[in-house]
Amino acid sequence: MKWLFAFLLAAVIFGSAAFFGYHIIVKPELAVRAEQNGEVPEEPRIDVSLPEFQAAAQLRQEGKLVEARDALTTFLQKYSSGLHTEAAKDMLGEVNMDILFSKYPSPEKQEYVVKSGDVLARVAAKTKSTPELIMRTNNLKGTMLHIGDRLLISRPDFSLFIQRKAQTVVLLDKGNFFKRYHLRSVKLPPRQLARITSRVAETLAWRDGKRVGFGTKEYIGSTRWIRLATPGYVLYAEPSSGTPQPGGVPPPPSGLAMAPADVEELSGLVNSKTAVTITD
Q: Does 15 have pLDDT greater than 60?
């Protein structure tokens, strides 16, 4: 056994010597040679942003949505191109929607008491919101309002920023990031301008091949389109092998295809005054 102990001791001694010899002598020498040859040695990336990203995710998991929103906003301002930037954008969009589409209290929501003569469309116009947003925020099952009802009203100032090559639709609130949607496909007429300033012209809802109106029973679960004022630009529900004609209508000849749930969600947030910017 003495010989085995002597062997292991020698291995430790020589192994340690080799380790320290490499890191103290060889590695620095290789770095010097690489620098002399104009090469920049690649250093391992340290993920300094991970703890802050995890902390924001933990706040969301605990149901502290406003705190999570603030933490993610700060994170994106600090790490605009970090390892977790894209995931943080997606999470921030989800948190923003969780707050917007619920009675969760937040500083931007104001209470509105329904008065005599109020109808949903009038309340939406008066408060600069949309009927569908008011319904979703307050979990209303129908458009009927009752005197004395207390509604939470959000007053976002939404606009859209569409990137054709990146295939994204970014929803902005007062110019700030709110949520990002991904386009499934882009089919547009040739010779597009590099930058287009447009607006939402109308939102459409389809069921069984017919247009249906907001407030009708057919509207719930209908297929949505968002037509822009610029010819050829329609945000529409992407067909699938199981549903080749969502809503019973063929897709438009040109436009931007989105997941059906995404365009349905987005259609309830925009109106004919929503500004749209389109770029490459």
A: no
| Domain 158-279 falls under CATH 2.40.440.10 | yes
pTM (predicted TM-score): 0.81
Domain locations in the chain?
50-100, 109-154, 158-279
Would you tell me how many other CB atoms lie within 10 Å of the CB of residue 96? 22
Contact 206, 243 (CB under 8 A): no
Q: What is the pLDDT of residue 219?
A: 93
| Phi and psi based region of residue 234 (left: phi greater than 0; alpha: psi -120 to 50; beta: remaining) | beta
Burial of 189 (0-12, 13-18, 19+ CB in 10 A): exposed
| 266: its two tokens | 């987005």
**What pLDDT is attached to residue 43?**
59
Half-sphere exposure of 172 (CA within 13 A, CB side): 12
- H runs (alpha helix) in the chain: 2-21, 27-36, 50-61, 65-78, 85-100, 120-127, 131-137, 260-267
69-84, pLDDT tens digit by residue?
999 999 999 998 889 9
The CATH code for residues 109-154 is 3.10.350.10
